[in-house]
Write a structure and sequence with these properties.
The complex is a heterodimer of chains A (278) and B (603).
Chain A lengths: L1 H28 L6 H17 L4 H22 L8 H23 L13 E4 L2 E4 H23 L1 H11 L1 H6 L4 H23 L11 H14 L3 H21 L2 H18 L8
Antiparallel strand pairs in A: 1-2
Chain B lengths: L1 H8 L7 H24 L2 H26 L7 H19 L3 H26 L6 H20 L2 H4 L5 E2 L8 H23 L2 H11 L1 H5 L5 H27 L1 E2 L6 H14 L5 H20 L1 H18 L3 H11 L11 E4 L12 E12 L2 E12 L3 E5 L6 H9 L6 E6 L2 E2 L5 H6 L2 E4 L11 H8 L14 E4 L1 H10 L14 H13 L5 E5 L7 H16 L4 E5 L3 H7 L2 E6 L2 E6 L1 H5 L2 H8 L10
Parallel strand pairs in B: 3-10, 6-12, 6-13, 9-11, 11-12
Antiparallel strand pairs in B: 1-2, 4-5, 4-7, 7-8, 13-14
The chains are: A mainly alpha (278), B alpha/beta (603).
């Protein structure tokens, strides 16, 4: 029973880390970045390269973040910037970019599945249950991501500009906020976060050119249901992620894999604002 | 194919003689080439083209849902997959035979229709967003594939179903059958989409809200489109499986759904022909290239998609059209004839209550935007709503026209309580609402916009683009006085701001409303346009006995035309009276001139 609870919380933590980058991009730009999955993969391969070079984990994680942020920045400048007025086309173009990145990775690294060793292995004894230490560490990672995020948004000038752009872009521009810069930085940070999450999940899953894809739909639905705030995203991850674990454990894993998508679609049908307060 | 293009555009009404001739020639050409091609082409190519024809049918359905109705759908693959599996499962379970074939087709149609109806119900409801519909369309194929995976031997799980006996037809004949099916689907789609119904679908894409406020149940139209296209895609899948003798989970997958979108995007969305061209090109090219250069081919597709979306949103067909035709546009609907409808029976009773509002409130949490609003308005009254910014004027208009907006209270329009009804139902009680920013259908011509506004009275034709357009006299007078009558064939997006406002007013008047709500109709108009508007409004109130509610900032304008004024202040009715009473009151002077407390504040 405790194992299921721990599974639920650590799954929620993973989902939170992966979807937070998507959330910030959606919040600021009102577009869905379908290349998010590809950036997750980029991060995973950055971790793979880092691990092969023998870099310590404290360096691998920033490396992944920077790789993702660089890809994201480039994407914003070349593609996304031109499509702010056409959000549905932005979905398609970023999907196309995702394919391109996936194929480039395949051409460089091959399509076979590879593995990365976790920085620390073994189990922790929690109330009489042996549980993977690395999964427990993911909870801490999620909390850190959330705190840094909240700190950035509430404690820095960029964060203030970002919140202004989220609330009312026209007004923010009128007040001298350089919204193009805010968008560029947001997209880069969101993509960096995607890559960071990719690096973090590598020890738990294998690395292959399409590894990000299964996560994309879940993350995407969670962001939609959350209605755009970090707090409600955490709630959505806990509720739907928990539900997913429960369904997978007690009913069947295939249905479990669908839980988030189906529940989110139904929640949104009944309550279009999702978990956000009206 | 410029001939096909011309056909829909100039020869409106039941096809003219020359159009008919060129159509017959085109049909003969297609049938002839379909009959001869398998004798010329090598068997590998024939084989590929058969599948490509079926895939192209699915791509056409994507183009209808996305290119015409504006819903980006990843889910058409699910319907295709349903057709594939309906055939495979029935033939695997019961063997091949004539009754089994009938059962399989019936299963393909019924299952696809049911799934499409469910998907449509989930995706389209009053207030749903295009993004949400896209999300649902993503979920459908994913769920379906998981069901297939977990279906054991019944669905063949991840390895699919093979080895069942199927229709025994030679490849040459499969080619002819598939090609003919594609030609028929394409032709029917083109005819329907260029008819009045097709215009209506484009109107849904351009401006769903405006459609709703024209009394059109947009959700129902979208669901019907999804069901019809779902059935067609399912039958395409049925044919695909019948030829191949294989059913694979990939046939239903989200990846295939995306591939269909890419075909349409590359070929040219919203053109049907583009979907066919895109599908055939990609299918044939990938058959030749994906074997030798698998990753590079995917790479090329991805890059091509990005490039097309950034640089040529209208795809290959759009580019070719621009090259062959240059910039000049063939005017559409120029031949439209305006006819006045029979005048409605003169309004019976001037004192008839048109709007009744009791204890209306709108709250956001503890914040009250409107509170305890109570008034009645009668036919032939021109009632102006004034008040400072943030007084709740636009909110009040919204609460009158959409039953889901208000938090508390009672509203009746022309004697009908609006309950929690969506706008399209309230419009049917006799309400017309003109928005603050001119809200028209940008890519439709003036005549088409007006025709869409008549949808509630004249059922749009499925096959023909009509010439005659019946409009109520009030709408015709607006069209003529504003100068729109000379520009009936022009797309609405090319009109000036003033003309767009006039067009929207004419569209709303085409509803023959009893109650007309106008939100700052004169904002941004020139002096002359404003005067023309004033004349039209007073005539509507006095001659046509409409009850007009007008939100306006310009007190001079209000004074000139109103028969009564309501002052809203901080969400409450501060004053309600004749023009003289209100304009000379202390409160109004205070609000509008900033002279505070000269006299006692009004009650």
């Amino acid at each position: 029973m405790l194992t299921v609870a721990l599974d639920a919380v650590t799954t929620a933590a993973l989902l939170f880390i992966i979807s937070s980058g998507l959330l910030i991009v959606f919040g600021v730009m009102k577009i869905i970045n379908f290349a998010h999955a590809a950036f997750v993969t980029v991060g995973a391969y950055a971790a793979l390269v880092g691990a092969r070079l023998g870099l310590p984990w404290v360096l691998v994680l920033p490396l992944a973040f920077i790789a993702g942020a660089a890809c994201g920045g480039l994407t914003e400048i070349t593609i996304v910037r031109r499509l702010y007025q056409r959000p549905l086309d932005a979905i398609l173009a970023t999907w196309g970019l995702g394919t391109v990145i996936g194929q480039i990775i395949t051409l460089i690294f091959g399509r076979e599945v590879q593995f990365v060793q976790a920085p620390f292995t073994g189990t922790i004894d929690l109330l009489g249950v042996d549980y993977s230490a690395y999964r427990i560490a993911m909870i801490a990672a999620a909390v850190i991501v959330a705190l840094v995020f909240a700190g950035l948004l509430n404690g820095t000038r960029l964060g203030l500009s970002t919140r202004a752009v989220i609330m009312n872009e026209m007004l923010a521009q009128g007040l001298g906020v350089d919204s193009a810069r805010v968008r560029l930085l947001t997209f880069a940070i969101g993509s960096g976060l995607a890559a960071l999450s990719g690096a973090l999940i590598t020890p738990l899953s294998s690395v292959d050119p399409n590894m990000g894809l299964p996560w994309l739909i879940g993350a995407f639905m969670l962001v939609m249901v959350s209605g755009g705030s970090l707090l409600t995203l955490a709630v959505s991850c806990l509720v739907l992620g928990g539900l997913q674990v429960i369904v997978s454990t007690f009913i069947n894993p295939i249905l479990g894999g669908l839980t988030i998508a189906i529940c989110a679609a139904i929640v949104l049908r009944i309550r279009p604002e999702g978990f956000a307060r009206a | 194919m410029p001939e096909v293009q011309q056909l829909g555009r100039t020869a409106t009404a039941p096809f003219g003689a020359s159009a008919k001739l060129s159509m017959v020639v085109l049909a003969l050409l297609i049938v002839g080439s379909l009959a001869l091609a398998p004798l010329v082409l090598d068997s590998y190519m024939v084989n590929i083209l058969i599948r490509a024809f079926f895939v192209a049918i699915a791509a056409v359905t994507v183009d209808i849902v996305w290119g015409y109705c504006g819903t980006l759908t990843f889910g058409q693959s699910a319907f295709f997959g349903i057709g594939v599996y309906a055939l495979a499962i029935v033939f695997t379970e019961f063997g091949f035979g004539s009754w089994q074939a009938v059962v399989a087709i019936a299963a393909a149609v019924v299952a696809a229709a049911a799934v499409a109806a469910l998907t449509g119900w989930l995706s389209f409801y009053p207030g749903s967003t295009p993004l949400y519909a896209s999300i649902v369309s993503l979920v459908v194929p994913i769920v379906l594939v998981q069901i297939i995976y977990s279906g054991g031997t019944f669905t063949g799980s991840s390895s699919g179903l093979v080895g069942f006996e199927s229709f025994d037809l030679e490849f040459e004949n499969w080619f002819r059958l598939a090609g003919l099916s594609l030609a028929v689907v394409t032709a029917v789609a083109l005819i329907v989409l260029r008819s009045d119904t097709g215009r209506l679908l484009k109107a849904l894409r351009d401006n769903d809200e405006r459609c709703t406020y024209l009394g059109i149940n947009t959700s129902r139209y979208r669901i019907v489109v999804l069901v019809v296209t779902g059935i067609v895609a399912s039958l395409a899948g049925f044919g695909y499986a019948a030829v191949g003798g294989v059913a694979a989970p990939e046939n239903a997958s989200f990846t295939f759904g995306t591939r269909l979108i890419i075909m349409v995007a590359l070929g040219g969305r919203g053109t049907i022909i583009g979907a066919v061209v895109g599908a055939l090109c990609i299918e044939v090219a990938s058959a030749y290239l994906s074997g030798s250069l698998p990753y590079v081919w995917e790479l090329i597709i991805g890059i091509a998609l990005i490039a097309v979306i950034l640089a040529f949103p209208d795809g290959l067909v759009g580019v070719i059209r621009r090259l062959t035709r240059g910039v000049q546009q063939i005017p559409r609907g120029a031949a439209t004839r305006l006819l006045p409808t029979m005048a409605a029976a003169a309004a019976d009773n001037a004192s008839q209550v048109a709007i009744e509002v009791r204890e209306l409130g709108k709250h956001f949490g503890s914040l009250s935007v409107l509170d305890g609003v109570r008034f009645t308005a009668h036919r032939a009254e021109l009632l102006s709503l004034v008040g400072p910014n943030g007084a709740g004027k636009t909110t009040l208009i919204r609460c009158l026209s959409d039953g889901r907006e208000r938090s508390t209270g009672f509203v009746a329009i022309a004697g009908h309580a609006i309950d929690r009804l969506p706008p399209d139902r309230i419009v049917q009680f006799g309400l017309g609402r003109k928005f603050q920013a001119a809200s028209v259908f940008e890519t439709l011509t003036v005549a088409e916009c007006l025709r869409v506004a008549r949808t509630h009275r004249v059922r749009p034709s499925l096959t023909a683009a009509s010439v005659d357009l019946e409009l109520p006299p009030a709408a015709i007078s607006v069209v003529e006085r504003s100068g729109l009558a000379d520009r009936l064939g022009e797309e609405a997006r090319n009109l000036s701001h003033g003309l767009k406002q006039a067009l929207e007013l004419a569209m709303v008047l085409s509803l023959e409303p009893e109650v007309l709500l106008l939100d700052e109709p004169t904002a941004g108009l020139t002096r002359a346009e404003r005067q023309a508007f004033a004349d039209i409004l007073t005539a509507l109130a006095s001659r046509d006995r409409l009850c007009i509610v007008l939100v306006e900032h310009d007190l001079d304008f209000v004074r000139e035309i109103s028969s009564r004024i309501i002052v809203l202040h901080q969400g409450k009715i501060a004053l309600d009276g004749s023009v003289d009473e209100v304009v000379n009151s202390a409160l109004v002077r205070e609000i509008y001139t900033g002279q505070s407390k000269v006299c006692e504040t009004a009650p």
